[in-house]
Every structure is written in structure tokens, then in C-alpha cells.
Specification:
mainly alpha; 320 residues; single chain; 70% helix
């Protein structure tokens, strides 16, 4: 999914906005989870994004047609939808156990999973640069958790449970991303996301508590609005960035998301020293996050000859 570089400044700025929004998302979700469960938050996000995409695609006259779902295509789309829906829910749910810095660092495993998936299913070469990037990601994670490694081996620890949930979230996102390549010939990315959002909203419907919206404070309501807008705006910035800049370079900028998470929480703690939802990372852990970002960026800018590049946070986490 490469595009010719037409305006690198605009491409960089749009990529940076997307990275920043995805980076701040875990901080937002952590606050919302105080008074709203994960599935309800995700449901509102899917519903809002679906409504925006319906209007957008209807205006363009490009709403998906039933014939596009014929044969095996419908089943592949169903599996992709299950993957992305699970990713959004699991990432949000993990924040009941861990803070935003940890969740955003661990979700970078999607980079490794996507590489290995490309090698396994699409016969991509595993280049020297990618091996170096993989090594840096592993080193970065070890440094990030250097003071919590013993705790991670305790399966009853909330930290371990949260990390395992994020790993599962990364795996389900990778499932979606690999299937997206297979479905690119049948749908535009907007059409695919619309169908996935509608599917996810229907699947989550029996498990939500929409009335919890009324129990939110003004700040939490604003944060929910931000989370909903994040789903649309961050992806919109990403999609626009691809029109102005190479996909590999966009991907490299998106790898900065963990630093936005860490930076925003450092700022919150500076303003409010009593703030509870921060890991208050030391310099070794922050250095580990930087190494992790470097590894993710390195793997992103490696040219891929047989696989259309899909950036790590195309619809998550962040996520999400």
C-alpha cells in the first residue's frame, strides 16, 4: 500500500497527529473504566464510527453491496471482524489491570506478529533489518519491564494478567491485519471498516450497559467523546497521510505512539502528583520504550516486496 511522496511535511504532520491520538487513547480509556465497562466503551466507539462511515460512504455513493459478501469473502470478513472486535475489547479490558504506559508498550508486539504472519502466510522474506528490528523490540521490552520481570512470572499478578490480555489483543489485531490484505481486492478500507464496525456493534449489544452513560462525570463524558472521535479522526489522518507520504514512513511515525502515552502521563503526574494511573517509569524503562519504538520503526521502513504494508495501529488501540 505504497503511495508516491507528494507532500512529506503534510504526511509527517498527519502521521504525527494519528500517533498522538492513538498514544493518548489508553490514558482516556483508563479514566472511563472507572464508571463504564470495556464492552460498553467499545460499543459506543464502534457505533459512532459506523454512523460516520455510513454518511461518508453514502455521500460518495460507495456503500458496500451485498454481492461483495458472496462466497468465501463473507467468511473471511467475518473472521477479520472478530479479530478487530476482539482487539478493541481486549485492549480496553486490559486497562483494568495495567496502566496506559504498559499497555501501549506491549501492544507493539503487533509489529513482530505481523512480520511473522507475513513470513508464514505470505512467504515474505525475513530481512536482516527486520531481524535487527525484532531484536531491538525484545531488548526494549526487557528494559521497559526491567524492574517488574519477577512480577511478570507471577500468574496471579494483576500486572501479568493485564500483559497477557494485551498480548492476546495484539494477536487478534494481527489476524485482522493479515486478513485485510486478502480482502483488499473486494473492499476499500472504509467499506471493510464499516462492515466490521456494524458487526462488532451487533455482537457486543447483548453485553453492554448503555445506561452507564448517564453516570459519567462531565470530564468522563468528554473523554468518551474523544475516544469515539479518536476512532474516526486518527484513522482519517492515517489514510490522508498515505496520500502524501510513503506508507513505510507513515508506519515509522506511528511507532511513536508509546512515547505519546508516556509523555502525556508524565505531564498528568506533573500537574497532579497524586494521580494514581501511571507507572511512573524510571529512565531505564523510558529508554526501553525508546528502543522499542526504534525497533518498530526500523521494521516499518524496510521495503516489503510481496506484502502491502499495514501500520501497527491501523484501527486499534490502540487500538483499540
Amino acid at each position: 500500500m505504497q503511495s508516491q511522496a507528494r507532500n512529506p511535511v503534510a504526511g509527517f504532520f498527519l502521521s504525527l497527529v494519528a500517533a498522538g491520538m492513538w498514544g493518548m487513547l489508553p490514558v482516556t480509556l483508563k479514566e472511563l473504566l472507572l464508571d463504564m465497562d470495556a464492552q460498553t466503551i467499545v460499543w459506543y466507539r464502534f457505533l459512532f464510527a459506523a454512523a460516520i462511515l455510513v454518511c461518508w460512504l453514502a455521500w460518495q455513493g460507495r456503500l458496500p453491496a451485498p454481492r461483495q459478501l458472496r462466497g468465501s469473502t463473507g467468511w473471511w470478513l467475518l473472521l477479520a471482524a472478530a479479530g478487530l472486535c476482539s482487539n478493541y475489547y481486549l485492549f480496553s479490558f486490559s486497562l483494568n489491570f495495567i496502566n496506559g504506559e504498559t499497555a501501549e508498550a506491549v501492544i507493539q508486539l503487533t509489529t513482530l506478529f505481523l512480520i511473522f504472519g507475513g513470513v508464514l502466510f505470505y512467504r515474505e522474506p525475513f530481512t536482516i533489518a527486520q531481524k535487527l528490528g525484532t531484536t531491538l523490540i525484545v531488548i526494549g521490552l526487557v528494559l521497559f519491564f526491567h524492574d517488574r520481570l519477577a512480577e511478570l512470572f507471577d500468574l496471579e499478578s494483576a500486572q501479568t494478567i493485564g500483559v497477557l490480555i494485551v498480548v492476546a489483543s495484539a494477536f487478534t489485531w494481527t489476524t485482522y491485519a493479515l486478513l485485510q490484505k486478502k480482502l483488499n481486492s473486494d473492499f476499500t478500507s472504509a467499506q471493510m471498516l464499516l462492515l466490521i464496525y456494524l458487526f462488532s456493534a451487533l455482537v457486543l449489544l447483548p453485553f453492554i450497559e448503555p445506561g452507564s452513560l448517564l453516570g459519567l462525570s462531565n470530564l468522563q463524558f468528554a473523554l468518551l467523546a474523544f475516544a469515539c472521535l479518536n476512532t474516526v479522526i486518527a484513522y482519517g489522518c492515517f489514510a490522508e497521510a498515505l496520500k502524501f507520504w510513503d506508507a513505510s514512513k507513515v508506519s515509522a511515525v506511528l511507532a511513536l505512539a508509546p512515547l505519546f502515552t508516556i509523555g502525556s502521563l508524565k505531564l498528568v503526574v506533573l500537574v497532579n502528583p497524586a494521580y494514581a494511573f501511571s507507572d511512573r517509569l524510571g529512565w531505564i524503562s523510558i529508554s526501553g520504550a525508546m528502543v522499542l519504538v526504534l525497533g518498530s520503526a526500523l521494521t516499518a521502513i524496510v521495503p516489503r516486496t510481496r506484502y502491502d504494508e499495514v501500520p501497527v495501529h491501523i484501527a486499534t488501540p490502540h487500538a483499540d
